[in-house]
Amino acid sequence: MVMLLSLSTSVNVFACTGVVVGKDATEDGSIIIGRTEDIGAAYNKNFVVVPAATYKKGEMFEDLNGFKIEQPTKAYKYTMLPDVAEHEDGIYAAAGINEQGVAMTATVSAYLNEAIQKVDPLVESGLREAAIPSVVLPRIKTAKEGVQVLGEIVEKHGSAEGNIILFADQNEAWYMEILSGHQWAAVKVPDDMYAVIPNAFMLGYIDLNDQENVMASKDIINMPAKNGLLKNHEGKFHLALTYGETMTEGNRLRAWGGQHFFSPSQNIALDTPVFDLFMKADDKISVDEVMDLQRYRYEGTANDVNLPENKGKRAIGTENQAECHIIQMKEEYPKEVGGLMWMAMGNAEHSVYLPTFGGITDTHEAYKVPGVNYNPLSAYWTFRGLSTLAELDRVNYGQGVRSYWKQYELELIKAQEEVDKKVVELAKKDTKAAAMYMTETGIATAEDAIGKANEIHSQLYTFIAKHGGRAIKNPFVPVVE
User: Fold this and answer.
1) What's this model's pTM, rounded to 2 decimal places?
2) Is 324 a catalytic residue?
3) Confidence category of residue 469, pLDDT binned at 50, 70, 90
4) What Enzyme Commission number(s) apply to this enzyme (predicted)?
5) What angle do CA 83, 84, 85 make, to 5 degrees?
6) Do the Cβ atoms of 298 and 305 come closer than 8 Å?
7) C-alpha of 288 from chain center
8) Domain limits of the chain?
9) How far apart are CA 430 and CA 337, in angstroms?
10) What CATH code would you report for 2-371?
C-alpha cells in the first residue's frame, strides 16, 4: 500500500495542463475552463453525478491523509470525474459543475520553493487535490464564492500541496493559486484574455486594493517580505518568483506551446525569462481549438515531439492523459442547466470529446465501471484501447483515427446549437423535463461514440494484423456508418 500511494503521488507531481478563456476572447461568447489530467496512460476514471444531500451537525468529510471538515447542512448536487476506488488514493473528482451553475477544475499541481516551504510549510493533514472539488462544489453558488470558500479552508486547515484551481459561472471566471501551506491568491480572469497553465505558479503582481478583481490571504505579501523572500520583476513584487520553484523545461515548453498556439504573431520565445499569465489571442478562440490545444504536440515547430530528435520533451498532448475536459459556461444557460462539459476519456490525441450538461441526473453505465485493468465495458478503456493502437504508428494508424474523431466533434459542436435551444426552452417551463432531456441526450451521445470506438478498434486491430510488419502502402482509414 505504501508503495502504491508513493507511486500515485509521484505521478501527480508532474500532472496536468490548464486553460481558461474569457468570454470576450471566445468565438461564441462562452467562458471556457479546462484541464488535461495527466496522471497516467493506463488510469481508469469514472464520470458520475453526486446527488444533493443533507447532513446533520457534526457529520464530517474525511480524506485519507487525515483532513477533516464538517459537511454543509445542505450539499448541492454536482458532476465529477473521480478515480476508480481501486487506485486507493482518494476521490480525485477532477472537475465538475454543481446545481447552482458553478464549474471548477482542480487541480494543476504546482510547487513552492524551499525557502517558502521553510517559513510556511505544506500541511501533511491539510486539504489535498484529491478532495478539493468534493469539499468545495457542494457549498458554493458563484465562482467568486468558490475562491472565498477554498481560501478560508486553506487558511484554517492548511494545504497539503501547491495547487492551481479554475472556477467559472455564467458571468466570470477566477484563477486561483494555493502558494504555500496557508497562503493563496486569486484574480478574476480578464474577459478578453486567455491563459495556458503548466505545473507552475504564474501569478505575478496583484493589486491587493482591487477587491473587485483580486482576492488573497491576508499575509500573501507580508509573510515573504518579513522573511526577506519577496522577489520583484520589472519593479513590482512577483508572486510566482517569490513562492514558486524555478520553471522546469517541461513547464516552460507548455507555457510557450500554449502561447504559441493561440498567439503565434507575438513570437513568444521558449527562453522567455518570465511568462505572462494572461495573453491576448490572435483570433477569437473556438471550443474545437481548445480541444486541439489539449492534443498539441508542437507539430510544425522545432519542438515537435513527434520528431525523433525531440523524444522525451514534454508535450501538452501527452499519452499520460487519463481524461481531458473543457467546460463552457454560457450566458443563456439557466443555473439548472449549469454549463457544458466536453470530456475525452483517455488521452485526447486519439480520443473524442463528448458533451454533457451540468444539469444531468445520471451518466452512461460505461462511465461507472470500476477496476484498474482493461475492461471492454468501460468507457475509459474503450477510448484508451483505441488510442493505444493508434499510437503504435501515428502516421499509418493514428492519423485516420484522429481525423475521424475530429469530424465527429465538429458535427457534435454544430448540432449542439439546436440542443442548447431545446434545453434552455425546457428549463424555462419544466426543470424536471429539462433534466431528463439533458441526461438522455448525454447518455445517447456516449452510447453512439462508444459503439463507433469499438468498431474502429476492431477495424484497426484487423488492419495491423493483416500487415504483419510489412510496408503499409495506404494508411488506415475508419469506415463507420
Assistant:
1) 0.96
2) no
3) confident
4) 3.4.-.-
5) 110
6) yes
7) 15
8) 2-371
9) 12
10) 3.60.60.10
